[in-house]
Response regulatory domain-containing protein (marine sediment metagenome), 245 residues
Amino acid sequence: MKQKILIVDDDETNVAILEELLEEQYVLATASSGQQCLEKIDRFKPDLVLLDILMSGMDGYETCRRIKSDPQSETTHIILISAKTSIESRLKGYEVGADDYIAKPFDGDELLAKIKVQLRLREALMNLTSMHAQVSLQNTKLEELVYQRTAEVVETRDLVVFALAKLTESRDPETGEHLERICAYSQILTEQLAKEGPYTHQINEQFLEDIHRSSPLHDIGKVGIPDAILLKPGRLSASEFEIMK
């Protein structure tokens, strides 16, 4: 598919020269003023604009600045064409966003070379932009997947903690309410320590959550105690007490 070039010049002779030079290689459109250029860019969507500086009304500098300041057209490359040859004129062109500058009278081969360079640069930049968008999309999907997997791991962990706590409760009928009390006491004490005392800088929301989730497991060791010892109604012997410890 041929790339598109918009020629902007209020001199019909200059436009005709450029059309003859470019019509076999590119799809062309023309504009005779800066305002007409801005209107045609929205419809024609050129890859490159060849923009004369000295035009009545809005000159090439202002037209270039407006093209580059519009998010819809800022990626359009612009070559300024002018009889002005001073370094100041060139620098002003680059300041308003021009990608290149060629002075009149120009050599046709040089202009064609500049056009090809700018079109290759634009294509490369568009490809990079597309790749960046794809990478950003993949990163977003990856972040969502990590968040989902993390949530699943946390849910599984909570289920395991709950199951272990219920297992402990099943070994000792009195443990159930005890677990609830320890969980509540741990939460209250930790919240108080977070407000005042030497540990305020160490206790954050994650620490509070970890305490709340893990406190039911403080009696998990009872799971491994034989029933004869765990449920013994009387005083434990020295050997039984060692096992209980």
About this structure: The radius of gyration is 38 Å. Residues 135-244 form a domain with the Hypothetical protein af1432 fold (CATH 1.10.3210.10).
